Amino acid sequence: MDPRIVGSMAKNHGLISTESARALGLTANDVRELLRTHQWRRLRRGVYVDAQEWESADEFVGRPLLRVRAAALHLPAELALSHDSAALVHGLPVPDARISLVHVSGAARGCERGGIKYHQARFTSDSVISWQRVKILPPQRTAVDLAREHGLTAGVAACDHLMRHGVSRAELRAQLVQMHRWPGIRTAQRAVALADPGSESYLESAARLLVIELGFGVPETQFGLSDGVRAAWCDLRIGRHLFEVDGKSKYVDRPNALWNEKLRQDFLGGFKLGFSRINARDVYTDRRAAKARLTREFLDTARRFGTDTADLEPYRVPRRLRSS
Fold first, then answer.
1. What is the pTM of this model?
2. Phi-psi bin for 215: left (phi > 0), alpha (psi -120 to 50), beta?
3. Do residues 183 and 260 touch, judged by C-beta distance below 8 A?
């Protein structure tokens, strides 16, 4: 392939438009041959990606972001990337980027066309960020848009992420002012109110909402205890009951993970605390059964140990907050 074409695509994350290909001397037959021989892959009408670039990209971030970049090549100047698409650029969690549409805001009317969802949602010229010569809505606005678009779990996860990285609740609330009477505004307001920087993943945010639904209160995140020799933290606590969220990554390719987890649970249990474990299946598939089990386990802890935690105060350590 012509080195000029290789260089042009390399500068644009492996992407090239039909117009750019023609400007570099490629004919329609040349493009068809590159597609036939699987050197290029068509991402959308008039935009192609180097096949190796596509294959090397992961399905949860890399490939969805390539689709966003491809759409942005022909995005009208008055529109801005928003919702899931802006979230991918900002590194915010989204429900499932593999199936996300490209989202843009500022359209004359809302519709879905060619893999792009057009939103009428307004924005001011001073409230956008420039990203690769394309307008993009800022992360605070994006988080509340995710709540309006996808519901409470997505909104809380995004707001949790931003607060964990230093964004204040006041900054998130400021985004809600212009959204009076917009669709999904009540969900967005609740997401901002429930946001907590102590949740360290999308699954932890979703599990926290599951625990709230039990009706025993809002759990404390990153609850830690120390006996002066070792310290341990747990994801969620209500009263004397701890809830630990288990993602698959906690155990995969970590030979001592199960043993270390047992030692940590034994240590925390020594303070007369009950324990529940929550996984993705509990949150997304068997929610009703999980709530029944968690309720039984919480009530058993309360029966055995009560709910007062005054005796734990001498052993408490500050909440552990880690950016991710």
1. 0.90
2. left
3. no
Q: What whole-number distance in Å separates Cα of residue 129 and Cα of residue 139? A: 10
Where would I find the beta strands (DSSP E) of 114-187? Answer: 116-119, 129-131, 134-136
Q: Is the pLDDT of residue 324 over 50?
A: no
- Report the share of the chain in percent with pLDDT over 70: 97
Q: Maximum Cα–Cα distance for the chain, whole Å?
A: 78
* pLDDT band per the 50, 70, 90 thresholds, residue 255: confident
Query: Residue 297 in contact with residue 241, Cβ under 8 Å?
Result: yes
CA distance 271 to 267: 7
Q: Which helix (H) or strand (E) holds 81?
A: strand 80-81
284-291: Cβ within 8 A, 24+ apart: 284/206, 287/210, 290/210, 291/210, 291/213, 291/214
CA 275 from chain center: how many Å?
A: 27
In degrees and rounded to multiples of 5, residue 223 shows phi and psi of -80, 125
Provide mean pLDDT across the span 173-191: 95
Q: Let me know if 126 is exposed, middle or buried by CB neighbors in 10 A (0-12, 13-18, 19+).
A: exposed
Both tokens assigned to 146 = 């995710």
d(CA 131, CA 136): 6
Quote the CA–CA distance of 85 and 146 in Å, as a whole number: 10
What is the spatial distance between Cα 124 and Cα 175, in angstroms, rounded to a whole number? 12
- What pLDDT digit, counting tens, does each position of 37-87 carry? 999 999 999 999 999 999 999 999 999 999 999 999 999 999 999 999 999
Residues counted in the chain: 324
3-state SS assignment for residue 41:
strand
Which residue in the block uniquely carries the two structure tokens 């001073």? 126
What share of the chain in percent tops pLDDT 90?
A: 85
Tokens 């959204």, residue located: 179
132 or 151, which is more confident = 151
Question: How many CA atoms lie within 13 Å of 187's alpha carbon, on the beta-carbon side?
Answer: 18
